[in-house]
Every structure is written in structure tokens, then in C-alpha cells.
Amino acid sequence: MSLDKTYKLVPGTTIFDAEQSAKGYHLNQFCMSLMTAENRAAFLADQRAYLDAWPLREEQKQALLDHDLNAAMREGGNIYFLAKWGAALGLSFQQMAGSMTGMSEEEYRAMMVAGGRSVEGNRIDHAVLEAAHADQAPPAEHAVITGAVFTSHVPAIGAALDHHKTEEPYWKPVFEGYAYSKQWERDNLPDVVFLVYNDHATAFDQSIVPTFALGTGAAYPAADEGYGPRPVPGIEGDPDLAAHIAHSLIRDDFDLTLVNEMTVDHGLTVPLSLMFGDVERWPCKVIPLHVNVVQYPVPSGARCFELGRALRRAIESYERPLTVQIWGTGGMSHQLQGPRAGLINRVWDNAFLDRLIEDPAGLAQLPHLEYVEEAGSEGIELVMWLIARGAMSDVDDTGTVQVRHRFYHVPASNTAVGHLILDNHPRAVAPASEE
């Protein structure tokens, strides 16, 4: 079923949603640049040259040069951002508002003094609204989740790959565990990977600590984590699908931080290297989802599991025939700090893998204390695997899953490495009968 966007039917109104945000990202960032006196002076000195320095579509530039706020908003502009542009031009808010209604500033002010514009005659036409709600048939084509990948994202694995140490005795057993995985990916290459990971004090420092941060941008460069950026390709995002997912998840009561620009660290790039190998360009688009598992409180396993279920609903409502894999990364047992540093729990890790396959709903109920006590302080990363597991169709009895590969190894630097691949087999939905 399509997402409910009937707010678009309200006359004379442009709602700034995730779709509009993606469309107008650079336009709105241009407006933000005018918050310094130096930039305002440069803009006013040569407006066209200043606009040409930004990656704006010609329609966006022309809307600004024509002082056409309605056109600017159709092109993805938001009134609060555009107000910075108006202020740089010396326009009052009443001037800007009046220009959008065909009124002069004086006429608009007089209307407001008289009580403002009446809502009468400015509501949605009931016939239009009823017609919009009448078309609730499932889309003829939609995105599907074809599988899930679960893997640790150890930074030292990235270093071993980058420094050509994969055949050394210490590292060879680790990389042999992913030989099948690379072939499986070649045989089952998706259009998009939705990759769940945690940032390691790289894109997010203590100035902002988002619980769930969804990447909605077009590209994400590899981060410099102190040793220089990894020599891997940049990430190509999918802003359209990401905007759709954002809309669906937030309407499903998951409060997300939406991020259009960020660097991505080993939590995201190491899994890509393990599954795709050394490539000049990643073979599919990637949508990153950062989960805070660094600063408590962190989301519960149950919340992550429910997020996975909502994620499947979001993806399957996307009206394009894309194939999507969900990757859950991090873990397994490891502790990087304190007198217990180096903790590994093979028995607990393998029991976790067993339950992830056979009893994910029950596994999702594990309290944080058990993760920390049994799997180490950084073992809490495993809650992210439950997002990927919750997105599989067997969870809601709408399909089945098949274990394709399972691997476990100790050690990889300070960490136990766990890896699992599940094929997702959703049942076909029968077409609605015609009466």
C-alpha cells in the first residue's frame, strides 16, 4: 500500500517532507550559507555567480533570481531556509508571504490586521480526498528484501585488507570464512544494501548523540579515523528510497535523525570490503543506518527488532521493483576497556547465533545487562543484528528464511568474528479478487 501523503492535497500549501528535503537539499544549504556577513556581501555583489558556485538545478537558480518563492518551494525549498535568502535581500517576512499570494506588502498586512486569511474556501475538496483514499490497492511493483547479512565490523580487518595481510597465518582463517560470502553476493547482488552499523566517534562526537540516524544523502565518503581514510570507494546512497523509508518509519512512530551529509567509518566500510572484496566502485547503492551503542541509554533489542519489522513494511511499500538486502553489523563478544578488556565468550556467541536463526523474537527480549556481562561492554553492538533479523518475512509468518552461511572465529584483533547469511523468501501476495 502506498504511503499516506494526502497532506499534499491541502490547497495553497507545500509540505516540506523527506522527498522535498532531498530535492531541495543544496538549495536550502545555499540559504544557510547566507548566515554570515561575508557571504551575504558576496551574494549581493553577484547573485548569479554566487548561485553558480552551488550544485543547484537551473530551475532552482531561476526561481531565486526571479524572487519567486512559490517556484523555489516547488523545487524543494523550505520557508525557514528561504527566509535567510529573503533577509539577505532586505525583505521582511510579510513581503515574502505577500509575494506568494499575489499581494503587496501593504495588502498582506491589511489582511492580517483584519484577522488573517479565512480557512473557509481553503480546505481540501472532499471529493478529491475521497478519491485519494479510494485507491488503496497494493502497488503492482514494489521493492523486496531478498536476504540479510550479519557480520562483525572489526577495524583491524580493514587494516589487514588494506595492507595485504589476508594470507598471513593470523588473518587467513578470518578471510577464508568470507570466501563463500563473496560468491553469494556475486550471485545475489542487490540494487541496494540497507546497512545497520554504529559510528565509532567519527561522524558523531559528543555534540550530538542520535539514537537512530538514517543516511538520506546521495554520497558518503570514507572517514579518517586517525590513520587516514581507508583506500576504498565512496558510498553511493539512494536518496529516493531513503526518503521513503524515513517517511514510513517516522509515521510508524520511530523517531529518526535524518542525515544528508556524513563520513562513514569502519563500521560500514569493513562489511562492504568483506562481502564485495577489493573493488574500484561498490557494486550497489548503500543506505546507512547508524545506531547509538556507545553512550547509554542505548536502544533495546526489542526496539531494534520492532524497527526491523517496520523497515520491511517501509521497503515493501516502495513502488519500484528494487531488490534490497539488510545488513546487521557489529559484535560479537568483545570488550575494549577496563580490566576485563579482551573478554571473549564463545559459548554465548554461538548460542546467540542459534537463537538469531531459530528464536529471534525471544532473543530480542535479552536485557542490556546480559549483553554487557556475557559479551563484554562492546558486545552490546549485537542489538543491531536484531534490526536486520526483524526485517525477515518469517518473523510475521509471511514467508520463510534459509541459512546460507554461518561462520565464527576467534580472534580478529580484540574481537570474536561472527557471520551469518539468510536468504529471505516472502510468500507471493495473491491479487485481490474482482467482484
Give the neighbour order of strands across the main sheet. 6-3-7-2-8-1-10-9
Nearest-integer average pLDDT? 94
Number of strands: 10
Helix run count: 20
Oligomer: single chain
The helix fraction, in percent, is: 40-55%
Q: Give the distance, in angstroms, between the N- and C-terminal Cα atoms.
A: 20 Å
Radius of gyration: 25 Å
Biggest sheet details: 8 strands, mixed
List the secondary-structure elements in sequence, H or E.
HHHHHHHHHHEHHHEEEEHEHEHEHHHHEE
Q: Proportion of β residues?
A: 5-15%
What coarse outline follows from CA principal-axis ratios?
globular
Class by alpha and beta content: alpha/beta
Poorly predicted runs of 5 or more residues? 431-435
Would you give an account of this structure?
This protein is α/β, with parallel strands linked by helices and 435 residues long. The strands form two sheets. The protein has an eight-stranded mixed β-sheet, with helices on both faces. Strands 4-5 form a two-stranded antiparallel ribbon. 40% of the residues lie in helices and 15% in strands.
Main attributes of the structure:
two-stranded antiparallel ribbon, 20 helices, 435 residues, 10 strands, disordered C terminus, alpha/beta, 8-stranded mixed beta sheet
